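Ticket #319: bound-state structure for heme C.
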Amino acid sequence: MKKVFKVVLIVIVSLVVLIGICASYIALRSIPKYAVPKVDVKVEVTPARIENGTKLASMLCKSCHYNESTQKFTGRELTDAPQFGKIYARNITQDVDAGIGKWSDADLVRLIRTGIRPDGQYIPPYMPKLIHISDEDLYSIVAFLHSGNNWVQPDKTIQPASKPSFLTKFLVTIGAAKPSPFPTEPIPGPDTANLVTLGKYISLYQLECYSCHSKDFAKNDYETPEKSPGFFGGGNELFNPEGKKIISMNITMDEQTGIGTWSEENFILAVKSGVVPNGQPSLRNPMQPFSNLTDHEVKAIYEYLKTIPKLGNKVERSE
Ligand code: HEC
Ligand code: HEC
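RESOLUTION: The complex was predicted; output attached.
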């Protein structure tokens, strides 16, 4: 008996030591570098692209990269996802030293799709990757970054280096967070005259409404959004910049627990200005008012939501 006990003890001690070694390995490790996919693209800057890109950047980049004090995209500390570490969105103005003034179009396109910087450094999930957005929309964002818009004019502000948490390093080490593959085929835009097709594109691939409005960021299927658990049924726990928990709502057309009783006008008002029916208080951050969307685009999302399965999932609005 004594011998068995000794063996068990040795096994336990060895396991503890092994786990300790693995943990310190992960803790000491920095985010690894990856092979840099070859991307060959030169983006033509046209007024139409700048206009589209400015609209997209205001909905997809501004929330992290815009800085109130400089009134430019000089970056800021991101306090809404402390589990990822002490994270700073960087200066992405046209400054050649502090910003992205030296980056080529291909460097930008590659980073936004895959998360890989020109030197192979990978940006973990604290910056979302636009893996399904159309080439035209992506080139529009690049055109905006090269434009004369005041948000991206050169500025020397430098943000401190991000300090990823143990969790972030762990996710990267086990491969749960890794660069997205660069698309092998061109990605066309949607047929904008077909409301359902357009609505699907906006809510799954362009603005990714489903990613907040399904059950859990960690369980979302980013490759095939429809396979995400609780697709559009809400309940995902989010945090506003003050660290207050705000749960995402069920926006399937379920009459009891979703928005099945909302009219198209109710929906447009809520998405564009945050005003919801029945005298409820307005929607709060991190649900931003998508005021730059046209009524046609919001109608399209509404029409698309009518085509997906209704989910009975009661979400209590966060107080
Ligand atoms: C949820 C927050 C968030 C959003 C939204 C976001 N970013 Fe970022 N971005 C970051 C963070 C954080 C970093 C720096 C990561 C680090 O320190 O490793 C970063 C880094 C970058 C870099 C690399 C800069 C450098 O010097 O290495 C570029 C370029 C960039 N972002 C462009 C964009 C564009 C364009 C958009 C919109 C399409 C966007 N980002 C949206 C958080 C965000
Ligand atoms: C960054 C995460 C996030 C994204 C992206 C997002 N939402 Fe939301 N949404 C929320 C949260 C959180 C709430 C709850 C806000 C509150 O309780 O004040 C919400 C609430 C709503 C509501 C109100 C539902 C109700 O019953 O009151 C609607 C409608 C809605 N979102 C539609 C959309 C659409 C359409 C998109 C895409 C264009 C979208 N959301 C993108 C987080 C998000």
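RESOLUTION NOTES: Residues 47-173 form a domain with the Cytochrome Bc1 Complex; Chain D, domain 2 fold (CATH 1.10.760).
TICKET STATUS: resolved
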